[in-house]
Amino acid sequence: MTHVMLEGLTRRFDDVIAVNNLNLEVESGELIAFLGPSGCGKTTTLRMITGLLLPSEGDVQFDGKSMIAVPTEKRGAVMVFQKHLLFPTMDVARNVGFGLKMAGISKKEIDRRVSEMLELVHLPGFETRRPHELSGGQQQRIALARALIVRPNVLLLDEPLANLDANLRLEMRELIRTIQREMNITSIFVTHDQEEAVMLADRIALMFDGVLQQFDVPKAFYERPNSAEVAHFFRNDNFLAGTRHGDCVETGLGSLAILPDHVTQPDGKVVVTVRPEDIYLAPTSDENLIHVKVLAQVYMGTYKQVQLDVDGNKWLAHGPADLDIREGDTIPIQLPKTHIWLLPPVNGK
Ligand code: ATP
User: In angstroms, what is the span from residue 119 Cα to ligand 1's centroid?
Assistant: First the structure.
């Protein structure tokens, strides 16, 4: 189990700042997801942690010790790539046992640990197969076994599920989570899939353009996003400008009561948000009742998704599947104060 600390980690490629002053700590045994759109610096960060790439500035520490001068093979961090990168001419046993052979471990011990690993990734008896005789999912599991067999201090996974179909992704997610817990390995994986990060990670580091936006437990990204951009990444675009005064926010649709202890934005300009699933389309009281126009509605099977005009902003709300409303109607909706979250104003407005 290894504690990982990134301190002011920065990497430039000519005039591109791929990773910009990244500071975060991964606790021993934790599973962290680096999440963000393509090109935000996730892979560059992983490569700096393994030592495949040197930072322009900053430090990578394992258990308080700087790794900058330590070569990749001595860091005890292994990386599983998006493409399986198995040795095509070697059978599964030799692929999985490769790291142990390099370390000079005896053949008998390698054989024992290879079969142990193959059990762990649910592929017992696959020792003599060649990579081309395996499905994509099986290849990925062999790549995982090959990484884990050396008992790494830190496991790094670069979009390990990206090439798998939906069912295999689910299976692999569970496998990674179970093995990671069982072996208690500090693990960091990269994904641009928000759902995957939420399902797998203890904490998520969300990055945009090389900058860490929020590092928190998955729930926080839904309930307490740091900014409108973070909320948007987690599929919430319900925004209404206002001005906070203590326990209420003045908006173009009137005053809304808030729970002062629940929000963190100070008095002044704010952006009010309520997630689609937290809006009451069938109000239960007069508190925070606003009148809005129904722009569209879509039946989603288990619920109805309704598009609303909220003071000129397009909002989404989820209501019961049998909700009886018509497009063009003006309806009362309730923004429960327990679910109102305040974001910083966008561009100072
Ligand atoms: P993806 O999800 O598409 O893999 P990512 O978040 O992992 O993206 P990185 O691969 O870390 O992003 O790239 C971050 C930025 O750094 C990008 O703008 C990329 O073009 C740039 N970059 C990465 N590697 C190099 C390199 N070797 N030379 C020049 N620019 C690079």
Answer: 36
